[in-house]
Amino acid sequence: MKYFWRALLLLVPVLIVLGAVFHSQTFPVIEALAGGGACFFHTVTGLYCPGCGSTRATLALLHGRLLLSFHENPMILTCAVLAVLGYIELWSISFGKKITLLPEKWQFWAGLIGVQLMWSVVRNFVPALMPLT
User: Fold this and answer.
1) Which of 7, 9, 54, 61 has minimal Cβ neighbours within 10 Å of its Cβ?
2) 26 or 47, which is more confident?
3) Containing domain of residue 19, as a range?
4) Half-sphere exposure of 121 (CA within 13 A, CB side)
5) Predicted structure pTM score
C-alpha cells in the first residue's frame, strides 16, 4: 500500500504538465466564457447563487490575484488551500511520517459549510460583497 502513495506522488508532476498543456490550449476560451456567461439562477431570480463568481475567482487565482479571487468567491481560494494541505498530508504519509494539517472533527467541516452558506445569503444584500460583473 505504501508504494501506491509513492506512485501517486510520482504521477502528480505528470498531471501538472498535462494540466499546463491543457491550460494553455483552453485558457482563452475560458476567459471569453467568463466575461459573457450568465448564471441561470441569477438570470431567473436576480440573486447570486453559492457558485456565482467561481469561474472569475478561479481565473483570478490562476493569475495570482488572491484578493480578487477571494472577493469573487471565497470558496475557490479556501478549497485551493485545503487541497494543498491535503496534498502535504498525503506526501507525508507516503514517506512514513503522519503530519496532520487538516482538522479531523466534523464540526470544523460543518462550520466551514455553514459559513459558506451564510456568505452566499449575505452577499445578495451587501453590494460590496457582490461579484464584479
Assistant:
1) 7
2) 47
3) 2-129
4) 5
5) 0.69
